[in-house]
């Protein structure tokens, strides 16, 4: 049986993007949101309201623009928030880790994790069909406009260890739409357009 997955990241409170995503979600068996629904910890309730008609199941991880607690508080019925946790949805095993890894230079508002902290949280994942992180893995879909590779070593090591079928992320806007392989795992930096995957 084929499961149709729709995934996106970095909505950043865009009403126009949300309308497109919600409309497209009707074609999906599972929807994944890879973080940064609002801006700088502001407007999260509004962002979740924009997504309230998204098809279910809808699995989300926090970005660096919202904390896990804030996202859980703002989530509507049928939305599952993962941050260092696993769940099963639409017959697929999922594991999610939010926040920016490694730490950003953005200041106190940004929800960040050190590589060591992220590694500890990812250690709990021994198997997954899809790994959902806000930050990309080091060396794949993680290049800024200045040409710097700013992805996470801990996320890359987890992908190498677990070898999920798919790893989705966001965070680095300059790499939206970029993808690559780590072993047998397809890695995709999503961005705020609907991306579909057949699992």
Short summary of the structure?
The protein has 199 residues and is an alpha/beta fold. It has 5 helices and 11 strands.
Provide an overview of this structure:
- By secondary structure, the chain is of the alpha/beta class.
- The chain has a single domain (4-198), classed as 4-Layer Sandwich (Purple Acid Phosphatase, chain A, domain 2), CATH 3.60.21.10.
- The chain contains five helices and eleven strands; from the N terminus they run βαβαβαβββαβαββββ.
- The chain has helices spanning 15-25, 44-50, 68-74, 115-122, 153-162; strands at 4-8, 30-33, 58-60, 79-81, 85-89, 92-97, 130-133, 166-169, 179-182, 185-189, 195-198.
- The strands form two sheets. Strands 5-6-7-8-10-9 form a six-stranded mixed sheet, with helices on one face.
- α1 (15-25) links the parallel β1 (4-8) and β2.
- The chain is globular.
- The mean pLDDT is 97.
Topology of helices and strands:
Blueprint: E1 4-8, H1 15-25, E2 30-33, H2 44-50, E3 58-60, H3 68-74, E4 79-81, E5 85-89, E6 92-97, H4 115-122, E7 130-133, H5 153-162, E8 166-169, E9 179-182, E10 185-189, E11 195-198
Parallel strand pairs: 1-2, 2-3, 3-4, 6-7, 7-8, 8-10
Antiparallel strand pairs: 1-11, 5-6, 9-10
Helix pairs in contact: 4-5
